[in-house]
Write a structure and sequence with these properties.
single chain; alpha+beta; five-stranded mixed sheet; two-stranded antiparallel sheet; 16 helices; globular
Length: 418
């Protein structure tokens, strides 16, 4: 087949064509190598091996000692000066440095912390649906999917209300930058906009963090900047990097899955009917199947740190591999009839939140909680809600993002009694 995962033209193809290409790649005896072209302002290497089978993605995810996230997980890699400007993100670290940061921020996503958020999430979902009913259906992404995750994150860190519109604006700019840039002029423009947006977010949270050191509150930000029982806390630079990661990564999984999810429920009426027949029984399975089917983050890059044999492929130190989560989640050996949306499927091994290992998504349970609560509110109060037409997708090799999705609803029922 005519496949080049490193070329923009491949990511312009319809999703169905891309899935067919990955299905062919999964049938090959060994991972296929793809050379890279030089991309302006990015540190392009000589190419990468595509890990497309579920077993290969899982093996690489578990073995961070060999398949390192350093120097960067994005594909292509950013130039080295980016870390000097923005600091180093936890997602691009391994070993003791990664373990330390993960240990500090894990407190943010403890069962106790998430349980304490439930009432706020329910209130946010109710307010969002109130606004949809008042304003009428236009764009599901702007009116629903994009609002909830950022609202929850801002609540967790107690970001002042007057700053939240700016947070939304900066995140939207950063999200657009994850797309594939079609020209040098557009690359320069988007790189500049993205840099300014990330710097603004970092300056904002560092200033707030300094205020919370002087006067702690009971919020997540105070927790991160004041020492834990082991004396560990985030520095200003680490806080800025974590905030950017939380806003972008923590936003995209829930946002993209919800946006694709309303389309999946519309296109699969029998699955929708099954979900609505017993919401509590089926919603967890429905969310996991949505994440598997959608794979909101499509790929991450790893650098091989030592010679290693993977399924007959002899990798050498310095080689690059790319973990294609969307392909792994369609692997027929793990998910029979993988292109079918089935909310009763056993999706426990899916890699939609990243593969198992030290880099599994910290916010996975928060994303599940947000989606579960939002779909309950939507399907309870707007039982006829449906997508209309095809979504407008972001042109990206990284982020399976929906830019917009028209929708409609008919009957409005009373607000759910909790």
């Amino acid at each position: 087949m005519d496949i080049d995962l490193a070329d923009l033209d491949f990511w312009r193809k319809p999703p169905k064509k891309r899935h067919e290409a990955f299905a062919w790649l999964r049938q090959q005896e060994r991972p296929v190598f793809f050379p890279e072209k030089k991309v302006p302002f990015l540190r392009s290497g000589r190419g990468f091996y595509a890990l497309v089978r579920h077993a290969d993605v899982v093996e690489a995810s578990r073995n961070a000692k060999v398949f390192s996230s350093e120097p960067a997980v994005t594909n292509p890699e950013p130039p080295g000066w980016v870390k000097q400007v923005f600091g180093e993100s936890m997602v691009n670290m391994d070993d003791l440095r990664h373990a330390r940061l993960r240990r500090i921020v894990t407190r943010s996503f403890s069962p106790r912390m998430l349980a304490g958020l439930q009432s706020d999430i329910e209130s946010a979902c109710a307010a969002i649906v109130d606004d949809v009913i008042r304003d009428g259906p236009r764009d599901f992404v702007a009116q629903v999917a994009a609002r909830l995750p950022i609202h929850v994150i801002c609540d967790m860190l107690d970001i002042p209300r007057e700053l939240r519109a700016r947070v939304h604006q900066h995140v939207d700019i950063s999200t657009a930058y994850t797309g594939v840039r079609p020209s040098l002029a557009r690359s320069v423009q988007m790189a500049g906009q993205n840099m300014l947006a990330l710097l603004a977010l970092q300056r904002m949270v560092i200033k707030l963090g300094q205020e919370r050191v002087a006067a702690p509150k009971g919020d997540l930000l105070s927790l991160l900047v004041n020492a834990n029982p082991d004396g560990e806390k985030l520095t200003d630079r680490e806080l800025g990097s974590f905030f950017a990661l939380l806003l972008v990564a923590g936003n995209e999984t829930a946002r993209n899955t919800m946006a694709h999810g309303i389309k999946l429920l519309t296109d699969n009426p029998a699955q929708r009917e099954l979900l609505m027949s017993d919401f509590d029984t089926h919603i967890n399975g429905a969310i996991e199947e949505m994440v598997r089917y959608v794979s909101p983050i499509m790929q991450f890059r790893r650098t091989v740190t030592q010679d290693y044999s993977l399924r007959g492929l002899e990798l050498r130190r310095g080689d690059k591999v790319v973990l294609f989560y969307g392909s792994a989640n369609r692997d027929e050996s793990v998910f029979p009839d993988a292109d079918t949306f089935d909310i009763t499927r056993d999706t426990k091994p899916h890699v939609g939140f990243g593969g198992p290992g030290p880099h599994f998504c910290l916010g996975a349970n928060l994303a599940r909680q947000e989606m579960r609560t939002m779909f309950r509110e939507l399907l309870t109060r707007l039982p006829d809600i449906r997508s209309v037409g095809e979504p407008e997708l972001l042109l990206s090799n990284f982020d399976n993002s929906v830019r917009s999705q028209a929708f409609t609803f008919g009957t409005v029922t009373a607000r759910q009694v909790r």
